[in-house]
Amino acid sequence: MPALVAARPIAIWISFLGSGLSVREQAAVAWFGPKGFASVVYGLIVLGSGIAAADEVFQLVAVTIVLSILLHSSTDIVVARWFDDEREVPAWYGVAGRVRARLRGRDTAGDESS
């Protein structure tokens, strides 16, 4: 069980070394990052393998996936609020906001001159 809980965060941490992402951003990726579909495929492979415990293994995989979906979907707002701090807005966000404001200004100016 510890390997299941620790392997993903450790792999994420290693893959983001030198990326410039904060620990908080890395933690969010480790928690919500892409996963799950491979488990379905592996579970189906085991189910079709003909081994004696195939049904039990597949059921364990299915329960784990369902619990993961429930756990992650029940924490998404909590994690999103964790990032709701104006002092730590990424630099790219300010640029995007200024571009959107300029585009809105042009759209508005275009509507007034019509």
Automatic annotation (TrEMBL):
GO molecular function annotation: antiporter activity
Keywords per UniProt: Antiport, Ion transport, Membrane, Transmembrane, Transmembrane helix, Transport
GO cellular component: plasma membrane
InterPro entries hit by this protein: Cation/H_exchanger_TM
Domain Cation/H+ exchanger transmembrane: 3-75
Transmembrane segments: 6-24, 36-54, 60-83
Superkingdom per UniProt: Bacteria
GO biological process: proton transmembrane transport
Localization: Cell membrane
Broad class of the protein's primary localization: membrane
The keyword Transit peptide appears for this protein: no
Record's bilayer topology term: Multi-pass membrane protein
Protein name: NhaP-type Na+/H+ or K+/H+ antiporter
Source organism of this protein record: Planomonospora venezuelensis
Origin organism lineage: Bacteria, Bacillati, Actinomycetota, Actinomycetes, Streptosporangiales
